[in-house]
């Protein structure tokens, strides 16, 4: 079974619906320029209403480490997703068991640089010059498949009903991150799309589940390290 993260949550009812559909994780974007930005205060309210077993992920872009840690604690997050140009040295300021590092792979020359990072998982996304994510564009699936051989991997970037089966067959990701592909407008989820894509993913045979990313096992380990 492939783990599922729905990202860009801004609405309490959307969050509860996704949780009821059985997703393993929800993402909250604390990057102000994003159309899916949510304030820490609002995120905290939504998180307080969610089942404990759902992993809550905070998404940050090139922000001060102290600010990231403050929001992490205030909101009751489980994992930190760094989605910008953060260096390995910056990433090392956080516990690796709490950290997801988003990267963009354009050529095979980008693969060796991943070894400089030591996160809980690598997230493969797409990017445009003006956006750090949520572009609706697909990541490079062939390169993502090569990266998966060395890292717990989350596949992101333009995933939707029309391409999720092909993406999973090529990459065999332990987890997927879905955002714009299940939206009505940025920040608001289309519940029919959420339900359908979760059902579709559950129906697709995925042979790679050697490492979990968003399960309660991970949550327990994080709590023990605090």
Question: Your description of this structure?
Answer:
- The protein has helices at residues 12-21, 40-48, 65-75, 88-91, 141-148, 164-171, 191-203, 216-225, and strands spanning 3-6, 25-29, 55-60, 79-82, 99-103, 121-124, 153-155, 175-178, 183-185, 188-189.
- With 226 residues, the protein is an alpha/beta fold.
- It has a single domain, classed as TIM Barrel (Alpha-Beta Barrel), CATH 3.20.20.70.
- An 8-stranded parallel barrel has the order 1-2-3-4-5-6-7-8, surrounded by 4 helices.
- The radius of gyration is 16 Å and the shape is globular.
- The chain starts with a strand and ends with a helix.
Brief summary:
The chain has 226 residues and is an alpha/beta fold.
Overall mean confidence score, pLDDT:
90
Count helical runs. 8
- C-alpha Rg, in Å? 16 Å
Strands of the largest sheet, in order across it?
1-2-3-4-5-6-7-8
Pick out its properties.
single chain, 226 residues, two-stranded antiparallel ribbon, 8 helices
Topology summary:
Blueprint lengths: L2 E4 L5 H10 L3 E5 L10 H9 L6 E6 L4 H11 L3 E4 L5 H4 L7 E5 L17 E4 L16 H8 L4 E3 L8 H8 L3 E4 L4 E3 L2 E2 L1 H13 L12 H10 L1
Parallel strand pairs: 1-2, 1-8, 2-3, 3-4, 4-5, 5-6, 6-7, 7-8
Antiparallel strand pairs: 9-10
Helix pairs in contact: 1-7
């Amino acid at each position: 079974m492939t783990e599922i993260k729905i990202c860009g949550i801004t609405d309490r009812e959307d969050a509860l619906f996704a949780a009821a559909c059985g997703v393993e994780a929800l993402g909250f974007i604390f990057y102000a320029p994003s159309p899916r930005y949510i304030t820490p205060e609002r995120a905290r309210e939504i998180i307080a209403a969610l089942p404990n077993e759902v992993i809550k992920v905070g998404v940050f872009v090139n922000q001060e480490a102290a600010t990231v840690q403050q929001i992490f604690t205030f909101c009751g997050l489980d994992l930190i997703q760094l989605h910008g140009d953060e260096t390995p040295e910056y990433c090392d300021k956080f516990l690796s068991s709490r950290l997801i590092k988003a990267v963009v792979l354009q050529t095979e020359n980008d693969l060796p640089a991943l070894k400089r990072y030591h996160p809980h998982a690598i997230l493969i996304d797409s990017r445009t010059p003006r956006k750090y994510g949520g572009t609706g564009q697909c990541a490079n699936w062939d390169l993502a498949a090569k990266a998966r051989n060395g890292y717990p991997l989350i596949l992101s970037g333009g995933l939707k009903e029309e391409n999720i089966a092909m993406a999973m067959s090529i990459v065999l990701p332990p987890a997927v991150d879905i955002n714009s592909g299940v939206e009505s407008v940025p920040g608001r989820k289309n519940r029919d799309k959420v339900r359908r894509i979760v059902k579709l993913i559950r129906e697709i045979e995925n042979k790679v589940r050697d490492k979990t990313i968003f399960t309660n096992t991970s949550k327990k380990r994080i709590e023990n390290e605090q």
